């Protein structure tokens, strides 16, 4: 697979690269960011998301915990009631952030969890224990679903599980097996998905609207439109080039991946400390009320996305342009085309600086009395004003008239 840093960037896929970086940074600090990439088949949606596996940062977990328990906040049935001293005795370890995929042949038990048959059939000490499924194992990491529109159509049971996982941040999952107590555990996982809405069974929002709304953002992958871009992609994907790379693995690949990881760690640190300015919150709130948006998740995603976008783009603080950049991604799957067009046209007609200008205008109005006082204090004495500036005579008023 081509390393993440070598994947071709162009205007049609830049949003997906941005969302990948934003989601990883947010997931690193325990707040999921779910996104869905739509586009024609073969445009590289899945390739970009799978390549991101190599740039994921490490997480620290309780040693050998298959639920990826955070030592500072254990949540699984085996560790959640342990004391700090007991956890210290078990020890901790660093592992790469989990990246797991849900296949279309997966069963409910594979996704959520089931009885551990190895423990159950142990000849010496048989024991009925739960084996966590893909979702509990992906805790504090990424869960990828390819062709999610087909999964929503053919596997409603798995879709219901995803609704619980993505419903809140963190979500939760309930594991049920006959003969064992029901286990309900929190799960903090970012769900990435890909689909082609032009193929059967159609767009996700038309198949399972509840699941579509759970995604914070949706981006559309466009085809490349440059000869140079396409030629470079062909070169990187040629068989001879792949064989040459396999024989001579370059140290550069590891260094570039480390650069991405270091950036993500820094972005995560900044995200924990960054707040959205009040005037931008008010701007988002006005959009919600004016255009009768239904989902509160939409404006929450605008806030989360604007902060993350400003950070990965190197802005000192979140700007109104960061908010407007997120609006199409947040609303595309939540409103009809006419409403989205009205929102976009409203933003363009008022200008992207409106929120900031309104905020500054409000502050300026508060200082009007002080400005009036200064105005009169700086006035000139009448004896210092020339007569021509003070009085318009009949001659000056009628100058130029015939």
TrEMBL record:
The record's region (Disordered) falls at 363-402
Bias type Polar residues, positions: 390-402
SMART domains on file: AAA
Report the InterPro entries cross-referenced here: AAA+_ATPase, CHLI-like, ChlI/MoxR_AAA_lid, P-loop_NTPase
Q: Which SUPFAM superfamilies match?
A: P-loop containing nucleoside triphosphate hydrolases (SSF52540)
AAA+ ATPase domain mapped to chain residues: 31-225
Its name, as the record gives it, is AAA+ ATPase domain-containing protein
- Provenance organism: Candidatus Syntrophocurvum alkaliphilum
Supply the source organism's classification.
Bacteria, Bacillati, Bacillota, Clostridia, Eubacteriales
